Amino acid sequence: MFVIDTIAHRLKRGCETMAYPKGPAPVLPDRHGGALKVDASKCTDGCNACVPGCPTQAITRPPGKPVALDLGRCIFCAACVEACPPKAITQTGDHRMAVRRREDLILGEPGREQVRLAAALDEKLRRLFGRSLRLRVVSTGGCGGCEADVNVLGTIGWDLGRFGIQYVASPRHADGLLITGCVSRNMELAVKKAWDAVPEPKIVIAVGACAIAGGPFIGNPEIMNGAASIVPVDLYIPGCPPHPLTILDGLLRLLGRLEESGRKS
Amino acid sequence: MNELSATLLTSALWAYVAGMVGALLFQRAERLANGIGFGLAAVGGCCGVLSCASALATGAATASRSFELFPSLIPYVRFSIHADALGCFFGIIVSLLGVALSIYSLGYARGYYGQKSVGVLGAFFNLLLLATTLVFLADHALFFLIAWEIMALSAYCLVSFEHEHEETRNAGVLYFVMSHIGTGCLILGFLLLYQASGSYGFDSFHALGDKMPAGQRNVVFLLFLFGFGVKAGMVPVHIWLPAAHPVAPSNVSALMSGVLIKTGIYGITRVSLDFMGTPPNWWGVTVLTIGTISAVLGVLFALMEHDLKRLLAYHSIENIGIILMGLGAALMFLHSGHSVLASLALIAGLYHTINHACFKALLFLGAGAVLHATHTRNMEEMGGLAKRMRWTALFFLVGAVAISALPPLNGFVSEWLTYQSLLQGFGTTTSLIRLMFPLSGAMLALTGALAAACFVKAFGITFLAQARSDHARQAHEAPFTMLLGQGILVAACVFLGLFPTVFLKLFDPLTQQLTGQQLSQQLTVANGLVLSGVAAQGGTVSTLGITVMLLCLLPVPLVLWALFARRSRTRIAPTWDCGLRGLTPQMEYTATGFSKPLRMIFKALFRPRREVQREYDFSPYFTTTLRFESHVEEMFQTGIYRPLRWLVLRASRRLRALQAGSIQAYLIYIFVTLLALLLFAL
Amino acid sequence: MSASTLFALLANSTSLPWAEVPAWPVAEFVRATASELARGARLCAWFGVPEGTETGLVAVLAFDADNMLAVARSTPFSGSYHALTTTHPQAHLFEREVWEQHGLTPEGHPWLKPVRRTAGNAPANGEFFRVEGREIHEVAVGPIHAGVIEPGHFRFQCAGEEVLHLEIALGYQHRGVERALTGGPHLATMSQMETLAGDTTIAHATAHATIMESLAGTEAPLRAQWLRAIALELERLANHTGDMGALAGDVAFLPTMSACGKLRGDFLNLTALICGNRFGRGLVRPGGCRHDLEPERAAQLLERLKAALTDTKQAVAWFWDAASVRARFENVGVVFPAQATEIGMVGPAARACGLVRDVRYDHPAGWHRFAQVPIAVWPGGDVFARARVRSLEIKRSGEYLQGQIAAPTDGELRSELPPPAADTLAVALVEGWRGEVCHVALTDAAGRFRRYKIIDPSFHNWTGLALALRGTAISDFPICNKSFNLSYCGFDL
After folding, report:
1. Does B579 reach chain A within 8 Å, measured CB to CB?
2. Taking CB atoms and an 8 Å limit, are B580 and C153 in contact across chains?
């Protein structure tokens, strides 16, 4: 009889929610790689081995300048890591990648080898949203992967609800938009209307390479290459798709709910 | 009744006569006919209200007045009226409605200028008011019947006012036939009473008391119940109501629903409580049962309607059912000797009578204003009217709240009193009959809920959201007189709801006359602010208190807003529509859609039929056209009346054989009949 | 079936020189296709290949009973032709797509509307079918839906609670993938193949890799094929488990919903164990696989897989035990077997109508030539049947995986591919978790893509959802939608 069965099962299994952030973060899969680190000082002169291999042209090396890797365009295929002879581009295995400003995702300059992690929202917004953040997830033309990983944060393992973060059905009930997907032209009006419908003050979180810069489809005329083309973005979370841990870290960082302060490079 | 009241009463009657004559005289000058006809009707109504109300207010101690209107030259008939408590009470109803409706009609009749004769409308309106008032006041059986007939005929003329439509003509004929079937029963009933008492006066009927043999009493009761029931619109003889009320001009519909069907209630009350003494138990049980069935069926059929006026007509049937429930309970209590409870039930029933008159007339007037503006009765073509017809929408909303028995308006008070009498009735006997009381109470609760659902539908589909048709888009507010007429009734509803304890004093002479008790003291607690339900565990309610509390709480959100939120901006933005370009009227809920779940629940009753026509070229996956229609079966028509009609027609075809056409056959018929009568007399 | 000379036969995951594809004038071509479909073939692909100002049509048919595919084309033409849909409804979306992409008008097509409605700025702005009658109201849902789900527009015509007609307008996620593929493969092509439909990464990536390999005249090493099959079944497990949880959530059966929500993540983590990405991105590449499943890793995978399967079995058992769940699912959203056959449904949705069709069984390629997964079929066509098929597939995929992981094959993981042949047509069918994924590629004289056609299984099945809703209460729409769980982005491309 399933009633007794489920209760017994629940008692036996106990709490299935992970301890993070009060405990250590779950380990990323070993082949995941995590955030990238670009140590331009290791680059040999005239070497452009990483540039042609990048599917989304995220790496540029203008002559005379150090190599620049745009983590917002990166889809984390690790082709550049394999291609780099002096190992200037390495994988850190770090799940933390969320930033507040778009330019913080461009790695390579000395002092900018890794991402400058997101600072929390300002005082006023933290008071409003710190313990209760309602997000309207708008899927604007991606592949469904980011939506799936955003959705999994609501399951009992991750349990987003314990931070007061919840996905709502109507933008009128929301404090902000969480945009996934590269904003296709057909979705332009809908995204604008959703943004207009959210009451002030509002924030926008762009999750995934598509939402930041268009992802694998960057440059196609049918898309608008990311959420920033229509709405102002407060938080960028790179990945294709970002691991749920990365997304959660980004959200908590935005709300100032993590004990350690953002790493300054 | 003192001199002043009597004078006012006679002047009211003369005002109606003058209005009728004047309207007919000045037919050609439309505006003059309109003003004279309805203006004098309003004057008459005012006089009538003042007279009857003051008569009741001066208390039960004053003897009621009886006088002859004018000497009659016809043998057996005396044109005498007797303004006793019951008659005065109903006189208030008819006069109050007369005032409000006449004022309304001043504006409404303008819609007929140039098309139909407003003078005729005004004349028959006055005639109807006059005849109805006389029905309530008549003291003599034959005079009563004459006034009754005049009332029925003038109502027929008014119903058929727009006789160019076939639907109107059919409805008028149906009303005419049903009304006369009822009148036939009344004539028989009065003849039996005459035979038992020896005279036609109502006082002699009253003196009969228990002296009539039981069998004859029961027959008389049944005849009167049937005859007055036809007029009241009780189930199963109600079929004329949803046909006749929608097709009449709206002021006439309001008058019919508000007053005409109350004549049936008056009649039943008069016969069962005033004549013939203490009633046997089964009278009360029958009336209670019929009332319960009418209430439930009325509201169920109302839910399926999307013609606004037919919906209101079915609600009249429902409310008549509620009134009959109160009356039936009163009869049962009288039989078992609980005169206090009997008075309570009687008060509940009669309070609901006046309440229903007020809010139903208000709703019909509102429907009339809507019809006037959008030229359609079909709710599916309305919508968005609240923005264009603000006052009408507000008044209709008040009427809807009142009819749904929501506090603090008047519908709540009378239904509360009805619940009190039914629930307290459980303890009066120990026989199984007492189960009827909570059962009726439960059915009353069901009808209350369904009525509220129905009016959510009626108000919502008609007034809210976007307009569904061009007519609705171009609707305009009603003229001032129409709004004033509605406003009078709104004021009446509010007064009756907030100050029931004041109004209850008017019932004292009434209950004194019929049940021998005066209850207003017992029902009033705390200096008249709180209404109580007689028994200790009956409970109390104070609609005035509720209103005062609501009004006191009203500033609270405003204060909070001023304190905390004044600095926040307000934005007006469209409803969230999932990111579409915009919402269209097709995306609004329809009346049929709203009532669909209930239609499915009560499937056995409605036997709904739906017709889906699908057209396609190659395969049903790619439909080119799809048409949908649904119908609800009218069970009384198909179950009772059509077979009845068929039987009658068949029988008359057989009887036609008698009309052979030959003189010899007719002479033989006369001869045989004469022989039979002579033998019988011997 | 007798071999038809009007069509050229080929097997799944093979290629054929373009010159050997028989070409017919379009009227005869349509007639030939119609007669093959009438004899029981299934339309896998129907698309246009531009030749200058004119366009030629190409049809790829599947003879499931004979385990063969057939392909033919029409001579290039412009203007209009007699529609195939008039006799075979399963072609309706294909012909509309050809009309939208190339401008060839199918005469007599009963529902000629754009497929992705890219003109006019939004799919919901088009004209929708209306039911006549005053009592009907429309319910317009989308593009932004209440939950976390991709955008699409549904226009219901309702009489009260009952849906009389449902029209689905998609195209909100149109990213222009097919158009960007001409002249490819480009650098971004592999990533775009992986992100066509994000939860079907392995199936689409496998299909694309197979196309590249057959264009190069070779196939991937056996070990890579073995690993691809494992990844495909893991993808199937993850998605079916997630769907069972979602279905449970829609009928408010929380024990299964919570359990399966977590278990889906566990299955995705198994895929991540192999390649680092939870959806399998970066695993499949033309020529083989990029990451290997060494013995220690395989042992770990097997252990975690067993634990997850036990938990899933228990969670699903509670689900089937509850009468309240079954009562919500039975006889809701029914698609009849005749309807499913006529509109050409594929995948678990078709198998839930009693149709026995599965690419792994009918057109085995890759590792499925050596090891089979028994097909899960259930009659009935209602939500219950679709859920039942999924839970059966979870069980069978689980057993298959446990068998295959324990029996790896040796060999290299990736081989260098010779350049693709010129003027060649290649077809690859893979049974993704939603159904048949079909990629068809045609190279030009330089060996670059002249035309690349992608058909996600949702392309066949969205019509099934529209039919399933006819006569159903609109409040049952969420469970019907979730029981199909079709891909919006896979359709929109």
Report:
1. yes
2. yes
- Contact residues on chain A for C171, CB-CB shorter than 8 A: 186
Would you kindly state where each structural domain of chain B is located, as residue ranges? Answer: 282-502, 635-681
* Tens of each residue's pLDDT in chain C, 493 residues: 455 578 899 999 999 999 999 999 989 999 999 999 998 889 999 999 998 889 999 999 999 888 999 999 999 988 889 988 888 999 999 999 999 889 889 988 888 888 886 655 677 777 788 888 888 889 999 899 988 999 999 999 998 888 999 999 898 998 889 988 988 788 889 999 999 998 999 999 999 999 999 999 998 999 999 999 999 999 999 999 999 999 999 999 988 999 999 999 999 999 999 998 999 999 999 999 999 999 999 999 999 999 999 999 999 998 898 888 999 999 999 999 999 999 999 999 999 999 999 999 999 998 999 999 999 999 989 999 999 999 999 999 999 999 999 999 888 999 999 999 999 999 999 999 999 999 999 999 998 999 999 999 999 999 999 999 998 999 999 999 999 999 999 998 8
Q: Is there a cis peptide before residue B555, judged by omega within 30 degrees of 0?
A: no
Q: Does C118 touch chain A (CB under 8 A)?
A: yes
Determine contact: C475 vs chain A, CB below 8 A. no
Residue A169, chain C, CB below 8 Å: the answer is: yes
- Alpha-carbon distance A57 to A207, whole Å? 19
Asked if the structure places residue C382 within a domain, the reply is yes
**C339 and C463 Cβ atoms separated by less than 8 Å:** no
Q: Which chain C residues are closer than 8 Å to B599 by Cβ?
A: 160
- Say if the Cβ atoms of C265 and A9 lie within 8 Å: no
Tell whether C117 lies on the interface with A, counting CB pairs under 8 A: yes
How far is C374 from chain A, CA to nearest CA, in Å?
Answer: 28
- What does the CA dihedral A211, A212, A216, A217 come to, rounded to 10 degrees? 70
- Run of H or E residues at C320: helix C295-321
B105: nearest Cα among B248, B247, B232:
B248
C273 and C362 in a common domain: yes
Q: Does the distance separating the beta carbons of B581 and A200 come in below 8 Å?
A: no
Task: Say if residue C288 is in the same domain as residue C436.
Answer: yes
Give the number of other CB atoms < 10 A from CB of residue C470. Answer: 21
Query: Is C135 a member of any domain?
Result: no
Last residue of a domain, one of C82, C107, C132: C107
Domain termination site, one of C107, C125, C144: C107
Q: Is C159 on the interface with B (CB under 8 A)?
A: yes
Q: Are C204 and C454 in contact (CB under 8 A)?
A: yes
Residues C88 and C197 in one domain: no
First and final C-alpha spacing in chain C? 34
ipTM of the complex in this document: 0.91
B581: closest chain C residue by CA? C125
pTM: 0.85
Classify residue C472: in a domain, yes or no: no
Q: Is residue C486, in this structure, part of any structural domain at all?
A: no
Q: Does A151 touch chain C (CB under 8 A)?
A: yes
Whether residues C340 and C245 fall in one domain: yes
Name the residue among B306, B580, B590 with its Cβ closest to that of C124.
Answer: B580
Q: Spell out the domains of chain A, with CATH numbers in brackets.
A: 123-255 (3.40.50.12280)
Residue A16 has its nearest CB partner, among C171, C196, C262, at: C262
E-only strand ranges, C372-469: 424-431, 436-443, 449-455
Residue of C nearest to A18 (CA): C262
Range of the domain at C103: 8-107
CA distance C160 to chain B (A): 3
Consecutive H or E run containing B207 = helix B202-208
Identify the chains in contact with C, defined as 3+ C-beta pairs within 8 A: A, B
